[in-house]
Write a structure and sequence with these properties.
By secondary structure, the protein is an alpha/beta fold. Strands 5-4-3-6-7-8 form a six-stranded parallel sheet, with helices on one face. Helix 10 links the parallel strand 4 and strand 5. Helix 6 packs antiparallel against helix 7. The model has no long low-confidence stretch (mean pLDDT 92).
């Protein structure tokens, strides 16, 4: 997760929805785990499982599986791995679902991501009685922490944190233009944040034009054709990417041409993709500001300071639910 590994490592072991299902099926077929579920977000890739012998011997096999599945050398991966067993594994998941293990304490997105991962695994029939009850308990504690503590008040997610960074460069955004790549949950949150800030021009781009047009109709934006980068990158001051692809979507040559066309006017790029969507070399271009998930540190710390008084109460609720589950 973000505590044990930088984005350069995390992006190598992130799972798409299809990969998560395939990995879970392979873990069961190989006999490494009997029940299994993959939780993969921008800040973590975790595998939850039940082993028939209730021992810890599956940890080594699971580590090797991750290396093989993602074609990452064990020496690169192993220093970033962590393992939790029994009560500690239950506690960890409940803390994740409660937002206590998030980069942004109490973040809004994680509970929905846990729910989505569970539904996908359940529908794919790779969970069983233990993980079904465990994840139902995780969703229950996640909702309870947000209802009974202030962690859920004014929840901050990566979308709002990214827009705070943009405001540091441009000030207020109402006279600016923005381009959002992608039409998933995070993109929707970004667009909502931009609309709250009264962004002047909103451009949307997605590999599926039909989905982009639905999105544009909902948020009063203009659709740009996917792949027409030389035209599209001329307009926006703010570009936010959240696309599920394995290769860079925005490259250095693309941005160099765009900057020449726009007279080197300042450009802000927030890369919320996992793996990353923007080539890190883009940051070397004059007057171009590129931020990834790991650049939110200062905002993360401010967010944590504002909410940390609620942590003991949330942790007490978590412990109650751990005992209940056990």
């Amino acid at each position: 997760n973000f505590r044990t590994a930088p984005v350069e490592v995390r992006e190598k072991v992130s799972f798409s929805g299809e990969q998560a299902q395939r990995a879970a099926e392979e873990l069961r077929t190989r006999g490494i785990l009997e029940e299994t579920l993959v939780l993969s977000t921008c800040n973590r890739s975790e595998v939850y499982g039940v082993h028939s012998n209730a021992n810890h011997e599956s940890a080594g096999a699971l580590s090797s599986f991750l290396s093989d599945f993602h074609e990452v050398l064990p020496d690169q991966l192993n220093p970033s791995l962590y393992h939790h067993y029994d009560h500690d594994a239950v506690r960890h998941l409940f803390r994740v679902s409660a937002g206590l293990e998030s980069m942004l304490l109490g973040e809004a997105e994680i509970l929905g991501q846990v729910r989505e991962a569970y539904l996908r695994a359940h529908e794919g029939r790779v969970t069983g009685p233990v993980l079904n009850r465990l994840f139902q308990g995780a969703l229950e504690i996640g909702k309870r922490v947000r209802a009974e503590t202030e962690l859920g008040t004014r929840p901050m997610g990566v979308a709002s944190a990214g827009m705070k960074l943009a405001e540091r460069i441009f000030g207020k955004l109402q006279d600016r233009s923005a381009l959002v790549l992608g039409a998933g949950t995070i993109s929707e949150q970004v667009v909502s944040q931009l609309r709250d800030r009264k962004i002047k021009n909103l451009y949307l781009m997605n590999r599926s034009r039909e989905k982009a047009e639905e999105f544009a109709k909902q948020y009063d934006g203009k659709v740009l054709e996917w792949g027409e980068w030389d035209t599209s990158l001329k307009f926006p001051d703010v570009i936010v990417t959240a696309v599920g692809v394995q290769e860079f979507v925005v490259t250095r040559p693309m941005v160099e041409r765009a900057m020449a066309s726009r007279g080197n006017r300042a450009l802000f790029l927030m890369d919320l993709g996992m793996p990353r969507n923007v080539d890190p070399a883009v940051a070397e271009i004059y007057n171009v500001y590129v931020y990834s998930m790991d650049d939110l540190t200062e905002i993360v710390n401010q967010n944590r300071d504002a909410r940390k008084s609620e942590v003991p109460k949330a942790e007490s609720l978590v412990e109650d639910h751990v005992a209940k589950f056990i």
